[in-house]
Design goal:
There is one protein chain. The longest helix is centred in the last third of the chain and has 15 residues, at 191-205. The model is unreliable at 143-149 (pLDDT under 50). This protein folds into two domains: 4-145, 3-Layer(aba) Sandwich (Rossmann fold); 152-224, Winged helix-like DNA-binding domain superfamily/Winged helix DNA-binding domain (Arc Repressor Mutant, subunit A, Orthogonal Bundle). α2 (40-50) packs parallel to α3 (66-76) and α8 crosses α10 (191-205). By secondary structure, the protein is of the alpha/beta class. β4, α4 and β5 form a beta-alpha-beta unit. It contains twelve helices and six strands.
């Protein structure tokens, strides 16, 4: 039997390395980890190089995050099965991941044997969501991920397709009147990284500063700050 080729994308090197070891020990001969990536851009590059059958993708990673990487990979290789493996069970993340091509959304507290079984299942064509995530979606009245209301980042990305998801998140926080330090705190990134993001955003939007960016977004898309939307 040809083994299922798996790529792991997770910015926590210890977790990725440990998962490689335990999958190799517990998944018999039908699941083989062929590589690990620690950010979204590397995941895209390694997908092109290694042609995995299944990708286990974290949501939050530096640079290109897991959702953007999923969208890029799915756009080039729609046959590759991408499963989000993360600690975040927010239904917005679930919806965004599925909308961008993921065929599963699992939490990292999953048992190794269950994860191996999930890899086999998605490779065979199944769609999987962790029970706790499915229960949360059901409790919120969403019977299918594709029925969820689009998130604010999705709305921004639809209006401004050149922006990545992370850039959309930063832009929305700018619209919400957060300064660079506050944005860095909320997203768990360095303040200089926020400055880099805003410079890129301004260039993509064709504006010169924060004030003009907010006006441009509001005038073109109708998106307002959270406080104005309430």
């Amino acid at each position: 039997m040809t083994p299922i080729r798996v790529l792991i994308a997770d910015d926590q090197k210890l977790f990725a390395d440990s998962l490689t070891i335990v999958l190799g020990a517990d998944a018999a001969d039908d699941v083989r980890v062929v590589g690990t990536a620690h950010d979204g851009a590397t995941a895209v590059e390694m997908t092109r190089e290694l042609a995995p059958d299944v990708i286990l993708m974290d949501v939050h990673m530096p640079g290109i995050d897991g959702v953007d990487a999923t969208r890029a990979i799915h756009g080039e290789y729609p046959g590759i099965r991408i499963v989000m493996l993360t600690t975040f069970d927010d239904d917005v993340y679930v919806h965004d991941a599925i909308e961008n091509g993921a065929v599963g959304y699992l939490l990292k507290d999953i048992d190794v044997a269950e994860l191996a079984a999930a890899i086999r299942a998605v490779h065979a064509g199944s769609f999987l969501v962790s029970p706790s995530v499915a229960a949360k979606l059901a409790a919120s009245g969403v019977s299918s991920c594709r029925e969820a209301v689009p998130s604010r980042p999705q709305l921004v990305m639809k209006e401004f397709p050149d922006l990545t998801r992370r850039e959309a998140e930063v832009l929305l926080l700018v619209v919400d009147s957060f300064d660079n330090f506050e944005i860095a705190e909320r997203l768990g990134i360095a303040e200089q990284t926020v400055k880099n993001y805003t410079s890129t955003i301004y260039a993509k939007l064709g504006v010169r500063d924060r004030i003009h960016a907010v006006r441009f977004v509001q005038n073109r898309s109708g998106i307002r700050s959270d406080s104005e939307s309430e």
